[in-house]
Design brief:
The two termini are 24 Å apart. The longest helix has 29 residues, at 60-88. With 151 residues, the protein is an all-alpha fold. The chain is built from six helices and no strands.
């Protein structure tokens, strides 16, 4: 995993050495996610060494686990969109909160989704910033409601 992470880091940096000194937001997100995977696997194996008993989840504990997995998945998506915002410098266009300009959802977001379709989710500054902002609420609300520590 360390070698793969190093290779992806080189791959990411090489995208910024062509014409402009900036890296691809896809490559930055890939590099970040492989770092999290490497860390997570290391953490997992460490716990496997410590914990020799296997825990069987039943009843409401299974529901809590599903909720935690769902929150984790949305958090990972939020992190990916954070990499997109950082690499694309999308945070510079609407730098006020909670409003994007004069409203909760900027007109440019509607325009982007109408004209670009699904590409607005990954290649448009307004669309990427909108998704990143509102995924934060999706991550925060269940944590707040269920008293889980915010990630």
């Amino acid at each position: 995993m360390g070698g793969l992470q190093g290779f992806i880091g080189w791959y990411m940096v090489s995208s910024g050495l062509v014409d402009i000194p900036s890296v691809s937001h896809y490559r930055l997100a890939l590099h970040l996610i492989t770092a999290f995977i490497t860390f997570g696997l290391t953490f997992w194996f460490a716990f496997e060494l410590i914990n020799t008993e296997k825990l069987q989840l039943t009843g409401w504990k299974k529901g809590i686990r599903k909720l935690a997995v769902g929150i984790f998945a949305v958090t990972v998506l939020q992190i990916i969109y954070g990499a997109f915002v950082a690499s694309m410098k999308a945070g510079h266009i609407y730098n006020t909160w909670p409003l994007m300009g004069d409203s909760l959802i900027a007109e440019s977001v509607f325009y982007a989704f109408k004209n670009l379709g699904w590409e607005a989710f990954v290649n448009n500054l307004s669309g990427v910033q909108f998704i990143h902002r509102y995924l934060a609420y999706v991550v925060f609300v269940p944590d707040f409601i269920f008293g889980l520590p915010c990630i």
